[in-house]
Design a protein that fits this description.
four-stranded antiparallel beta sheet; 2 domains; globular; 10 helices; alpha/beta
């Protein structure tokens, strides 16, 4: 496994099988502190399954996942969060009946700081809402927010947990061009101000090329290749994976989603 500086996250030969179907196969990559790494691939490549394994939603069948040298494979999501990993979801999952502020309070109460004071947690939550431009809507029900606002709410909730590693799963899906550009600026600002390391799944290639210094491409659960945005854009294997017959007629992570339903 290739090294890229001080490793914050080390994924080593990670594998997950659902009901005989391999969702992630022998996947290895590292992320250095302060890096922005893109994880891309055609629908069904296993990207979200990889996120779920890192975040603790699934336990790997084989391989290792380390955060700052500490093994986190198979640990509960709450434990992984307390160690400094936060994530957003493809489909925003706010607590709809709760206010925007109450949603972000969840992140500040159960994140890496282990905040026990509601007052301290509320200050952290309001700070997070301020950073994403939602402070004025702190009392509004999360279900009443627009899609773009719900995506920013997810980001605020994740950031309020004070993570070392922030994992973003298609945070720009469904946004218009102006909203994508605003989100790019916001992520760059958060990364610098909070000293974050980012792992990003994204189909909006503008976002990938603008933000990421390095990209890992997945196909059929495996790592297809790795390189800079320029190297990836010109790689014939990547072009075939996205444009050829192998890259069509699949939803992202169908096996993983099916396993959750069963």
């Amino acid at each position: 496994m290739e090294s890229h500086g001080i490793p914050l996250l080390e994924v080593d030969h990670m594998t997950k099988v659902f009901h005989g179907v391999v969702a992630v196969s022998d996947l290895s990559f590292t992320i250095s502190e302060g890096e922005i790494l893109g994880l891309i691939g055609p629908n069904g490549a296993g990207k979200t399954s990889a996120f779920n394994l890192i975040a603790g939603a699934y336990k790997p069948d084989a391989g290792s996942i380390k955060l700052s040298g500490v093994e986190i494979s198979g640990k509960k999501p709450s434990t992984v969060s307390s160690l400094g990993v936060a994530r957003t979801f493809q489909i925003p999952k706010p607590f709809g009946r709760m206010s925007t502020l109450e949603n972000v309070l969840v992140g500040s109460l159960f994140g890496r700081n282990g905040v026990s004071s509601i007052r301290t947690a509320k200050m952290a939550a309001l700070s997070g809402l301020q950073e994403v431009g939602l402070k004025e809507k702190s009392e509004k029900k999360a279900a009443d927010l627009t899609l773009a606002e719900q995506r920013r709410l997810e980001l605020a909730r994740a950031v309020a947990s004070n993570p070392k590693l922030l994992m973003l799963d298609e945070i720009m899906a469904g946004l218009n061009s102006a909203e994508v550009l605003e989100t790019l600026d916001l992520l760059a600002k958060l990364k610098e101000e909070r000293k974050l390391t980012l792992l990003i799944i994204e189909h909006v290639m503008l976002a990938v090329t603008k933000l990421c210094g390095r990209i890992v491409v997945m196909e059929e659960g495996k790592k297809l290749c790795e390189g800079t945005p320029e190297q990836i854009a010109s790689d014939s294997r990547v072009i075939e994976a996205y444009m050829g017959s192998r890259g069509r007629l699949k939803d992202d992570d169908p096996k993983a989603e099916k396993s959750q339903e069963n």
